[in-house]
Each structure stands twice: as structure tokens, then as C-alpha cells.
Amino acid sequence: MAIHRKSSRGRLVLAIVLIAASLVSAFIFSSLANQKTSMIVSTNFLLPGHQIIESDLTRIQVSLGEVADNYVSDNSQIVGSFTKVRIEAHELISKSSLSSQSDAISLSSVPLSIRSADAPDGLIPGASVDIYWVQDDTNADMQLIPELVVVGAHVLAITKSGSNFGSEVGLTVAISSEDVLLLLGATSQGRVVLVSSHG
Fold first, then answer.
1. 148 pLDDT exceeds 90?
2. What is the arithmetic mean of pLDDT over 126-134?
């Protein structure tokens, strides 16, 4: 009888030890999985060719695990460098999206004044749009097909907007310097329509 009691007590102690060990190991694995790293994100959208300054950056705590090495974790690493691609606001900054040189990326800011009906609802700075030329005179003898003038223009600022249908919206867009003359020509011989670009 004494042997049976010792055996039962031994199994109980072993069970308690195993349960405690599993709880401790689960806690350790959970702590490691949830370990956060301090990383750098952009405070605003950054266009290709933009030279990064201190105010473009802020720090957040995120869980990235093994991929953390692919992103920037220190301001001093990238201040003064240039963006190779568009970086969205509050986006982690990939090391591969930056260059120490401008790589000859040249964007120009172009002011436009368009009808409010020719811009998508909810247009805000930072939006990406395609710009189409549309024939202005609908009563002309020859009706011309609308043409795509600029792909992936970036809205930098909206300076004014009317509340009435048919009023005008003033805005500034950033486009490749090579497309400036094409866009200005389109505005002088018709009107332009902005189409939201989500790709």
C-alpha cells in the first residue's frame, strides 16, 4: 500500500512539473513572438526623387521578426538620401527604395485649373491620378476620342474648390518633367479630366 501511494504521489509531482514547464515555455515563445522593434516610417507621402529630411521621418514600435533587416531603423541611415519609388504616408521604409543619389529622377510641379466635375470625389493631396485630354467643344464637326496624357500624376496640393456643380478646382500635380509640355498643350486645346489611379 505504501509503494502504491509513493507511485501516485510521484506521478502527481511529475504532472505538475510538466504543466509548469509547458506554461513557462509558452510564455517564453509568446514573449519572443511579440518582441517589438523600433523602426522608421514616413510622416507624409514621398515622391520618387525626393531628398529625405529629418521631418519626413518618425519612429514606431512594430513586430517584424526576421524581415526587420529589410527596413530602416535609424534616421541617420537615410537623411539626405533619395527615394526611388513613391512611399506612402506612415509606411515602413524599405532599404531597397532608397538611393544615395537622385538617379536622374526629375519631377515638375504643374498648376491646373479644372472643372470640379472633371475631378473624382474625395480627391486629396497625395492621391495618384491619370490625366486625360478631352475635346472641349462637343458641337464640333469632328468628335475626337479622349487621349491619355499623363499616367500616375501625384496631387501635391488643392488650392481651392467650389461647392457648386460646374465650378473650378485649382490644384498642383507632380509629373515627369518630360510630360510638362504635353500636359500644357492638352489644357490649351481642350480640357483635362482626372481619373483616380489605384494601381
1. yes
2. 91
Domain identity same for 116 and 189: yes
What is the Cα–Cα distance from 116 to 114, expressed in whole angstroms?
A: 6
At residue 166, the pLDDT reads: 53
Query: Nearest to residue 79, comparing CAs of 105, 54, 49?
Result: 54
DSSP code, position 116: G
Write down the H helix ranges in the chain.
2-33, 180-188
Would you say 118 and 86 are in contact if contact means Cβ atoms under 8 Å apart?
no
Question: What does the chain come to in residues?
Answer: 199
Closest C-alpha to 114, from 139, 133, 127, 140: 133
Say if residue 144 is in the same domain as residue 171: yes
Please write the tens of the pLDDT for every residue from 59-68.
Answer: 888 877 777 7
Best CA proximity match to 60, nearest among 32, 89, 38: 38
Question: Phi-psi region for residue 133, left (φ > 0), alpha (ψ -120 to 50) or beta?
Answer: beta
The predicted model scores a pTM of: 0.64
The C-alpha cell at 192 is: 483635362
Judge if 139 and 175 occupy the same domain.
yes
- The total number of structural domains in the chain stands at 3
Among residues 112, 2, 105, the alpha carbon closest in space to that of 51 is found at 105
Paired residues of 153 in beta bridges: 129
Q: How many CB atoms lie within 10 A of CB 5?
A: 9
Helix (H, G, I), strand (E, B) or coil at 164: coil
